[in-house]
Amino acid sequence: MTTVLVTGAGGQLGHDLVEAFSRGSAPCDVVGAGHDALDVTSRDLVHQAVASLRPTAIVHAAAWTAVDACELDPDKAFAVNALGTRNVAEAARRFGAHVCYVSTDYVFDGLSDRPYVEWDPPHPLSVYGRSKLGGESELGPGDTVVRTSWVCGAHGANMVRTVLGLWRKGVPLRFVDDQVASPTFTRGLASTIRELSLGHRPGVYHVTHQGTTSWYGFARAVVEAAGGNPDQVEAIATVDLDPPRPAPRPANSVLDNAALRLAGLPLLPDWHGPLEELVRELSA
What we know:
Elements: E1 3-7, H1 12-22, E2 29-33, H2 43-53, E3 57-60, H3 67-72, H4 74-95, E4 98-104, H5 127-136, E5 144-148, E6 151-152, H6 159-169, E7 173-176, E8 180-181, E9 184-185, H7 186-198, E10 203-206, E11 213-214, H8 215-225, E12 233-236, H9 258-262, H10 272-283
Parallel strand pairs: 1-2, 1-3, 3-4, 4-5, 5-10, 6-9, 7-12
Antiparallel strand pairs: 8-11
Helix pairs in contact: 1-7, 2-4, 4-5
């Protein structure tokens, strides 16, 4: 049976990655390692884990994704996101495992007037984006990079939970309408990562659900899916955020799933359906 190691298994994507590799017509022997079980900043621990498991594939989802906190502690951001990926990639090469690394839309500056394809040159604005791009640079030519955006799932903190929590408390809902991307939901994302990993597909892939929106539009859709009035949501500009956020955000981080499309691989569906499913699950 194929053995797969999932780092960052305690996160919302990691949880669904473990489920995705465990089910299906060809389930894998999957080992999910959260931060408490495997600190990827420790080269020795990573090498010991990979030497013990001898996985066929490693899905490296472990990351420090607190964007504003990364801006205030660059050393920690690079230790986890860049050096941690170096440790995983080195151990994988030593023991013959394929690596699939989960990256981010924040590797782009957001100044493009069109969606970004996989071959566009990255230019991150934030420490988080630079540290994740640093992680990309550690991978070998046969490995896989999956860039994604605005990730939401049932098992962790995310914007859907935030909007639902504020709405239920009656707190004013004010969200920016000048940051645009494609929402992505962890179950669909995990399924595509499974196929790319087990197929040993090399190179960079953008994987998001189809369709685009702003944070304002997304918040309206969350409230409407929960049975509320979307007009309760107010649009503001990023410069009007109070307090202002330490890390700059890309204004346009829409990722064109060009590599999937051109390779004839299935794309994830429009984001509205998965959002409604998630809201129902979180409201049950």
